[in-house]
Design a protein that fits this description.
The complex is a heterodimer. Chain A is mainly alpha-helical. Chain A contains 13 helices and no strands. The chains are: A mainly alpha, B mainly alpha. Chain B: Belongs to the binding-protein-dependent transport system permease family.
C-alpha cells in the first residue's frame, strides 16, 4: 500500500501541483503561475494538434482493431480445421515488444520498403507512397501498425466471450431459421457485452496513452504531423526542460482518460443491464 | 449445422489469408536480417546467400547481452513483488466488509485511471534525490507501484467468488491467519495468479517509456532501450538493425509458443475479473 502511495498517488498529486508552476525540473525555487500553462496549451497550435491526433488515434484504433478482432474471432470460432494454429499465430504479434514492431514497420513502410515493393510486384507500383514521410498519411500508417499488432489481442478476448455463449442459443437461433447476420446481432452480441466492454476500454485507454509506436515510427514527425500528447510530454520535459508545461499536458491527458473511461463505463453498464 | 461444408472451406481459406498478412512482416524481418549489406535487391525477394554475420555483429556492438540480463532481472523481480503485494492486499479487501476496505478499494481503482505520465516526472525527481536514477531498482520500484492496482483488482474479484469454507476450517483447526492464507487461500488462487503473471511480465518486459526516462544517461539498459539506442546508432544499416530485432524477439516468441495455452488463457482470463 505504501509502495502504491509512493509511486502513484504522491507523485500524481505533486504532478497536479506542478502543473500550475513554472518548474524546470531542476531548481528548487518555483513560482506559482496559475493557469498560465493551460492557457499556453490552448494557444500552442502544436499542443492543440497533438490533442486532436490523440483523439483521432484512439477512436480509429478502437473501431478498426475491434472490428477486425471480432471478425477474426468469429472466423476462429467456427469449424475450420486450422483454428487452433491460427489462434496462436494471429495472437503472436501482441506479445512482441511494441517498439520492436514499430522499428520493423518503419522499414517496411519506407520509400524502398517491403510494402511498396509488394505493391510493385503485383503491378500496383503507382500506389506506392512514402507512408511515414507524408504528413497526410503518417498518422494512418501508425494506426495501421497498431491494428496489425493488437487485432489478435481483441480477437482472443472476443473469442473467450464467444465460447461462453451456450450452444443451445446457437442451435435455437438456427432452428428459427434466422440468417447469420441477424443471428449474430440479436443472439450473440448481447452475450458478448462483457468482452466488448473490456476490449473498448483497453483500446481506448491504450490509444490515448500511445507513446512507444509514435516515438519509434515517426518521432512525432514529419514536422508535428503525428505528435500525440505523450510524445509532446516527453519532448517538452526532456528536450526543452519545460517541466511545468509538460505536466500540465499530462493533466490534460488525465482528464481525457477520465472522461473517456467514465463515459464508456456508464454507456456500457447501461447496455449490459439492458442485455441481461 | 455442425458439418464441414464448402462455405466452411471458403472461410478457412480467408482466415489463412489473414494469417499470411499477419506473417508477411515477419518474413521480411528474417529475410533482411540474414542478408549481407551489399545485397540491395528487393526486400521481398528471398535472400540468395544467407549469412549469420549480422547477428554476431549486432550482439557484439549493441550490448544486447547485458540488456537481456537487465530486462530479465527487472521483469522477474517486479513480477514477484507485484504478485506478493497484490494478493496480500486483495485478501483483506475482498473479505473484510468494513467501510475502510471499500474506501481503500476505490482508492486503488483510482490508480487504474491515472495515467502514469502524470506521476512519471515528479517521481523522476524523487528517484534522483534517492540516487536510484540509472539503476534497475528505480524500475522495479516503479513497476511495483504501477502494476499493483490492476493486479489487486484481478485478485479481489477472484477471491470474492471463492467460498469461505476452507479458510474457516483451517482457522478453526488452529491455523494462524497468515498460514491460512499461504497454505489454503493462495493455492486456490492459481488461475488468477497465472493470468496476473503473464499480463505483468509482458507489460514490464515490453515497456519502453519508463526505462527511457529512468535509465537515460546510464550504462544500464533494458532490451527496448538498447534497441532504440542501436537504431539511433546504425540509422540506415537495416540488415544489422533487423538482426538485433530478431535477437530481441526470439526469447519472447520461444516462451510464447512453449506456453501459448496458458498465455492466451491468461490474456482472456482478465475477462472474468
Amino acid at each position: 500500500m505504501l509502495l502504491f502511495a509512493f509511486v502513484v498517488l504522491v507523485p500524481s498529486a505533486r504532478g497536479v501541483y506542478y502543473a500550475f508552476t513554472d518548474w524546470d525540473g531542476l531548481s528548487p525555487d518555483l513560482s506559482f503561475v496559475g493557469l498560465d500553462n493551460f492557457a499556453g496549451i490552448a494557444r500552442d497550435p502544436d499542443a492543440v494538434q497533438a490533442i486532436w491526433h490523440t483523439v483521432v488515434i484512439a477512436v480509429s484504433i478502437t473501431i478498426i482493431q475491434n472490428g477486425i478482432g471480432l471478425l477474426l474471432a468469429l472466423g476462429v470460432n467456427s469449424l475450420i480445421k486450422s483454428r487452433t494454429v491460427l489462434r496462436v499465430f494471429l495472437f503472436a504479434p501482441a506479445v512482441v515488444t511494441p517498439i520492436v514492431t514499430a522499428y520493423l514497420w518503419r522499414n517496411l513502410l519506407g520509400p524502398d520498403g517491403a510494402v511498396n515493393s509488394l505493391l510493385g510486384a503485383v503491378g500496383l507500383g503507382r500506389w506506392g507512397q512514402d507512408w511515414l514521410g507524408d504528413p497526410q498519411l503518417a498518422l494512418w500508417s501508425i494506426v495501421a501498425v497498431i491494428v496489425w499488432q493488437f487485432a489478435g489481442y481483441s480477437m482472443v478476448i472476443f473469442l473467450a466471450g464467444l465460447q461462453s455463449v451456450p450452444k443451445e442459443l446457437y442451435e435455437a437461433a438456427a432452428i428459427d431459421g434466422s440468417g447469420p447476420v441477424r443471428r449474430f446481432w440479436s443472439v450473440i452480441r448481447p452475450q458478448l457485452a462483457p468482452a466488448i466492454t473490456i476490449n473498448l476500454m483497453l483500446s481506448i485507454i491504450g490509444g490515448i496513452k500511445l507513446f512507444d509506436q509514435v516515438y519509434a515510427l515517426t518521432g512525432g514527425g514529419p514536422g508535428h504531423a503525428t505528435d500525440t500528447i505523450s510524445t509532446l510530454i516527453y519532448k517538452d520535459a526532456f528536450t526543452l526542460g519545460e517541466f511545468g508545461y509538460s505536466i500540465a499536458l499530462a493533466v490534460v491527458l488525465t482528464i481525457i482518460v477520465a472522461v473517456a473511461s467514465t463515459g464508456q463505463y456508464l454507456v456500457l453498464a447501461r447496455n449490459e443491464r439492458a442485455a441481461s | 449445422m455442425n458439418r464441414y461444408r464448402w462455405r466452411t472451406f471458403g472461410l478457412e481459406l480467408a482466415m489463412i489469408a489473414a494469417a499470411v498478412v499477419v506473417a508477411f512482416p515477419v518474413y521480411v524481418l528474417v529475410n533482411l536480417a540474414v542478408r549481407a549489406p551489399s545485397d540491395t535487391s528487393s526486400p521481398i525477394r528471398p535472400t540468395t546467400s544467407p549469412t549469420l554475420a549480422n547477428f554476431s555483429q549486432a550482439w557484439r556492438e549493441g550490448g544486447l547481452g547485458g540488456a537481456l540480463v537487465n530486462s530479465a532481472l527487472v521483469t522477474s523481480i517486479s513480477v514477484v513483488v507485484v504478485l506478493a503485494v497484490s494478493s496480500l492486499a486483495a485478501y483483506p479487501l475482498a473479505r473484510a466488509t468494513a467501510r475502510w476496505s471499500r474506501a481503500m478499494f476505490l482508492l486503488i481503482m483510482l490508480g487504474l485511471v491515472l495515467p502514469f505520465q502524470l506521476a512519471a516526472l515528479p517521481l523522476y525527481q524523487t528517484m534522483r534525490d534517492l540516487g536510484l536514477l540509472g539503476t534497475v531498482w528505480a524500475l522495479v520500484l516503479f513497476y511495483a507501484g504501477l502494476q499493483v492496482p490492476f493486479t489487486t483488482f484481478l485478485y479481489t474479484g477472484f477471491i470474492r467468488a471463492l467460498p469461505h469454507d476452507f479458510e474457516d476450517a483451517a482457522l478453526i483447526d488452529g491455523c494462524r491467519p497468515w498460514d491460512a492464507f499461504r497454505h489454503v487461500v493462495f493455492p486456490m488462487l492459481r488461475p488468477v495468479t497465472v493470468t496476473a503473471l503473464v499480463l505483468n511480465a509482458i507489460a514490464v518486459w515490453n515497456d519502453f517509456f519508463t526505462p527511457l526516462l529512468y535509465l537515460s544517461g546510464s550504462d544500464q539498459q533494458t532490451m527496448p532501450v538498447a534497441l532504440a539506442g542501436f537504431v539511433g546508432q546504425y540509422v540506415a544499416d537495416w540488415n544489422l538493425i533487423f538482426a538485433a530485432l530478431v535477437i530481441s524477439i526470439v526469447p519472447i516468441l520461444v516462451l510464447y509458443f512453449a506456453l501459448q495455452r496458458s498465455i492466451i488463457n491468461g490474456f482472456a482470463g482478465g475477462l472474468k475479473g
